[in-house]
Specification:
Elements lengths: L7 H21 L3 E5 L28 H4 L2 H6 L1 H11 L9 H9 L5 E6 L5 H5 L4 E3 L2 E8 L5 E3 H7 L13 E5 L8 H13 L2 E5 L19 E5 L12 E3 L3 H13 L1
Parallel strand pairs: 1-2, 1-7, 2-3, 7-8, 8-9
Antiparallel strand pairs: 4-5, 4-6
Helix pairs in contact: 1-9, 5-9
């Protein structure tokens, strides 16, 4: 539904109608798969570096983000990579917002097969979602590239070094996040595809659906109850049953209230 109301009163009525329709579809569903992107976490103070949603960061380097966060750059410019990464991608004090909380609580009212996320912040787990597939990894996991020893984010921060190195063998520690030029974890991607194929309802939140292969999951969805919640438009809006262009936290809080009613 791509009708765009003109005045504020019409927008409010349209918003509530879309929320009520989403609640109805979710209530009637047998299984739900959720796909979240950066827009699910911006209300927790974590900016979307692709769309500039969230608090801006002062530009320090003359490299595009895609270069700074690439595998090649990590290998060849590890200290610069870590300086950018720690100051722009790691949000240790971020807390779950209404979107994360609502998704976790939804499990009481419907069959949420999984939350598949492109985010690396771990906030879905903090909120209590029981099955989270992190397609792009997590800032909370790190490993030595030489011996494989694992390190938490807290351990990495406590080292307070330009380039964190393993306390066992001295090897360079790499965040367990998927950088540009790196493939997604095959097991996680296969599991995400498997669950998407089973989904009755697919709920997409806070993603522009232009980053692949994550966006390609929608090509495996076989149902006709696609719900998209995103500030901006997406390439899949016209094939969705419901489209709500608004903040993820606001929408999901209202959907949860509807499920509780």
């Amino acid at each position: 539904m791509l009708f765009r109301p003109a005045c504020q009163a019409e927008r409010e009525v349209f918003f509530m109608n879309m929320v009520e329709e989403a609640v109805k579809l979710i209530r009637e569903s047998e299984s739900i798969v959720v796909l979240t992107g950066a827009g699910a976490s911006t209300e927790s103070g974590i900016p979307d570096f692709r769309s500039n949603v969230g608090p801006p960061k002062k530009k320090k380097y003359d490299y595009p983000v895609e270069v700074l966060l690439s595998h090649t750059f990590f290998i060849n410019n590890t200290e610069i990579f870590y300086d950018y990464y720690m100051n722009n991608m790691v949000y240790r004090d971020a807390k779950p917002n209404d979107c994360h909380k609502a998704l976790a609580e939804m499990e009481k009212y419907c069959n949420v097969l999984a939350v598949i996320t492109q985010n690396i912040d771990g906030l879905h787990q903090d909120a209590g979602s029981s099955n989270v597939i992190e397609l792009h990894g997590s800032t909370r996991r790190n490993y030595c590239m030489k011996c494989g020893r694992e390190f938490s984010l807290d351990e990495l921060l406590e080292m307070n070094k330009p380039v964190p190195k393993c306390v066992s063998c001295g090897g360079v520690i790499k965040p367990d996040v998927v950088l540009y030029e790196e493939p997604l974890n095959e097991r996680d991607l296969s599991r995400a595809v498997e669950l998407t194929l089973k989904a009755d309802v697919m709920l997409v939140i806070g993603t522009s659906l232009v980053v692949y292969p994550a966006a390609g999951l929608l090509n495996y969805y076989r149902g006709n109850k696609l719900i998209i919640v995103n500030i901006g438009s997406t390439p899949f809006d016209r094939s969705a049953r419901i489209v709500i262009h608004d903040n993820a936290g606001k929408v999901m809080k209202k959907i949860l209230e509807g499920l509780k009613a």
